[in-house]
Amino acid sequence: MPVVNSLVPSRFLTLIAHLVIVITIFWSRENNVLACLPLTYTKEQYSSRDTDALPACIEIILFIAVFGLKKKPL
What we know:
Blueprint: H1 2-27, H2 29-35, H3 43-68
């Protein structure tokens, strides 16, 4: 039974780590988009790459929501 008791703190720490990563990604989103563009780019290229990065951010948020709000068995 000690393994079961240690799973809850590790799950919590994993969730908190994911949340910190998501917040960091949102704060540095512009820098991440600029990093994948050439030195000279157009506004259309920027908006295209920015739109491409959005589903990845939403996927991470959904992961946190599913595992964070999941009902724990009694």
